[in-house]
Structure formats: C-alpha cells, structure tokens
Design brief:
The chain is mostly beta strands. Helices cover about 5% and strands about 45% of the residues. The chain starts with a helix and ends with a strand. GO terms for molecular function: hydrolase activity, hydrolyzing O-glycosyl compounds.
Length: about 550
Amino acid sequence: MKTNIVLSIALMLCASTNMQAQNHAESKHENIVTNMIDNPMLWADVPDPDIIRVGDTFYLVSTTMHLMPGAPIMKSKDLKNWETVGYIFDKLTDSPKYDLSPTEGTVYGRGQWATSLKYHKGKFYALLAPNEAGAMGDTYIFTADKAEGPWKQVSRMRHFHDCSLFFDDDDRVYVVYGTGEMMELKQDLSDVIEGTHRQIFKREADETGLLEGSRMIKHNGKYYLLMISHVYAPGRHRREVCYRADNIQGPYEKATILQSEFGGFSYEAQGTIVDTQDGDWYGIIFQDRGGVGRVLTVMPCRWIDGWPMLGDEEGRVPDRVRALKNGEPETAIVKADDFSKDKLGLHWQWNHNPVDKAWSLTERPGFLRLKTARVVPNLYLAPNTLTQRMEGPKCTGAVVLDLSKMKDGDVAGLAAFNDHSAVMAVKKVSKKLTLELSDQQVRLSQREKKVENVEVKVIETVALQQLKQQKLWLRIDANFVPRTDIATFSYSLDGKEWTKIGGEFRMGFDWQRFFMGTKFGIFNYATKKVGGYVDVDEFTYNKHQ
C-alpha cells in the first residue's frame, strides 16, 4: 500500500513536471512566433540603406535629400525596433539653394544621397555626395566616436555617385562608385590618391539599364560588391546583383542574388547585407511603394557556394522574419510629440535649412512656436516647414494650433506634403480666419530646381467664426494599404468632434521632383509681412492596421 502511494506521488510529480515543461515550451514557442518582424520592416520612406553592426547594435543610415538635419542614423538591437539617434549634419551651407532661394533655386530631390556608413578601429565613418553638379556635388567624409554624434567633417573631394566607403584589412581605404569604378583614398581620408582610378569590372552586354547603388563588404577573404540592376526591357525586372573577387582589383564574377516582387508591388533591389553576433546574415533591401515612399524589407541571407543569396528558400522576400531577440523595448522612427522638451525631437526634419531664429521651444514652454521668417508666395518657398514621415499600412497625425498671433496674410496649417500636396491651411485676411483645403502641385526647373509655379486648386473653404480661444485641431488620416495611397482630412473646434473637409486625396511619388514619400508637414508663413506666429500645442500620432 505504501509502495503504491509513493508510486502514485512519483507519477503525479512526473506528470506535473512534464506539464510545466510543455507549458514552458509552448510559452517559449509562442513568444518566438509572436516576436516577428512583418515586412516591410520599416513601412516608411527610408531609401538607399546602409547598415552595419557594432557589438550587439545595428546602425542604419538613409537618404533624406532636402530635409534637415540630414543623413539620419537609426539603431536597433533586434532589427524590429528602430529609433533615430542622430544625424550626420545639421545643415548644408555651401549654396543658397539649401535655404529655398527664389532666385538661385532649391535642392528638392537633390541634397544628401546614398550615404555609406562604416566602423573602423573604434570610429564611425560616413561618406556621402549630394546629387548635384559642380562644387555642390563634392563628396563629404565625416567621422564620429559614437554613431549618435557629434559628427565632424574630415574632408571634401570630387563627386562619387552612389558610393561605398571601404576599409580593407591592411588599412588601405577605397571608394567604390558609379558602375564598377574605384579609387584609393589617402590614409587620413583627406583626398584620393591620384592615379589609382580603376574600372574593376566592365558592364556586361545585357546590362543596358540601371547598375549602381554600390555596397562593398569583405567576407572570408573575398570582396563582395552589391548593386541594383534594372534593364528597362520586356521581361526584365529590377534585381540585386553581386560581384565578387579574391582581389579588390579583380577579376570579378557576377551572380543575381535577389529577383523578387513583394506584397503586390514591384521587384525589390538596392541595399546591403549584415551579420549578427551569432554569425547569421540578413539582407536589408528597399522597395518602391508609391505615396509612402521607398520602404525597407528584411530577409535571410544564406551563403550558397560562396554567394550571399537573399530571400527565403525559394529566393523570395518573406512576409515575416523572426526578430533576433526578445524583450527589446518598442521604439519607432515616427512619433507623437507634446513639445515639452527644450530640444526638438530627432524624429523631426525641416524642409531645407531652417531659419533658427524663427522657431522656439522655450519662448512658451510646452509649445512649438513657428514664426514667419520672410514673405513668400507659396508653401514650397516657405522656410521652417517641419516634417515627419508617414507610415503604412495606415496612420493618423494631428496638430493643435494656437492661431491668436497670426497677422494679416499669414498662412498656417498641416499638409500631406510632397511635390503634389494636399494642404489644410488657416488663412488670415484682415481680422478673419478661414480654413481652406487645397490641392497643390509645384513645377520645378530641371537644373536648378527653381520653384517656377505652384498650381493651386481650392477644394473646400470653411469660415471660422465659431473658433473659441483661437485654437484649432487639424488631422490627416493616411491609408497606404497596397494600391490605396489615400489621405483624408478633418478639423475640430474642441478636439472631440471632428468634421471632414474635402474628399479623398491620392498621394503619389515622382522621382523627377521630390523623389520622396509624402510627409506630415506643419507650416506657418507670411504672404504680406513678417512678425506673426503660431504655437503648436502638440502633434498626436498613431500607426494602425
């Protein structure tokens, strides 16, 4: 009898232990399954990526062209949760175009392009070349002790298009650019070494289209140059190709490492690969997605016969990828803001160089004050338009504006800002305030990007006689569900009851003008005289399905 009792207890303990182990395993499995990265990894405008790993942290840089500060540095420990931690430069100042000059031109769609990010012997390095002709297009090299900055300019030199900085194991330094061109740099990075130009491979006969976006890495003693290839012909698709060699000077052989459409959009290409501390590899590649811009996807990178093959086992971009680790805090690159800090959040960027004396977070604590800086004819020449990315699949952004200090002729509000914008603007004429929703398209000169004309179509106008305390709420709802790209607009007199204004606005993407996804844009400008201002109480933001 005693033996039976002991046996029963033992069986019960064994069953309990097995149940606990099973529950733990199921819980662990559930945690792994739920901690997934849904592609796009960053469903926002984050083109031309370069990504490196230092220790357990990944650092990513992207193109933001005419937005300032420029060349954002984002970081993550799991490839899922990203946040902006710094910028390589605050302003570019070698031309009045960076200040939205009505006579000299602008840098819409130009500015900082395709920055190369590296880490070498305890320091971070960044190389970028503005997409400009002449001295404006000269290449910059920056360095920093921390990716967060501050960054210091090391040198400027001739223009290198879509280039990759590369430090070899013997400490020799190269820049690879264009279509298979390379030059060696001096050890102090002050300039190129004259006479070192090489064409390290020749374009193949069938490569008759785009072949650029250089990203050079070294793995197991071999050199790998990743590039975007796109032949504009029937049956040919955008793809990522790789050139590899045993010697940096060549000869190089080539393979296609990714040719995959994804999510109902076009084929993907341009990006790079990065390893983890555990020795796994991932590809980070962007995809054109219409109105939201160029988004980032993440995928496995498998070394097959010495080639970094991207995608799943079938070579396709996967819908989901498991995050590298659990328990990382949730972070984002687009954020709400109550403007309670005395420094502007790193999630914001100005349209061109800001006029620093015309904005403040301290004159009225808890508010962003936007002052009129100069008299301009339209939004596209207005300084100090403050922007953030939009995100998919859907997002909502709203502002609260104190309009009590606007002057006659001032225009303030919130826009779905791009070369083709939808603009919710409060206009003050004499002592009356009117809310107007308009469709606005800018025409830019081809070379100097001068604002030649802005076509404005007024959609709806609302008189604001009932406005209490001169306070108004404005909201944009954006829908980037595939093949949608629709924005709708609302206003409120109390922040509770919302009224729609206008209908649906279709957001677009034009590589010949802004070459950028649509942004939230908060603005205030003068059309008659300066001296007025608006106070932005807060920017609320939500990303949703």
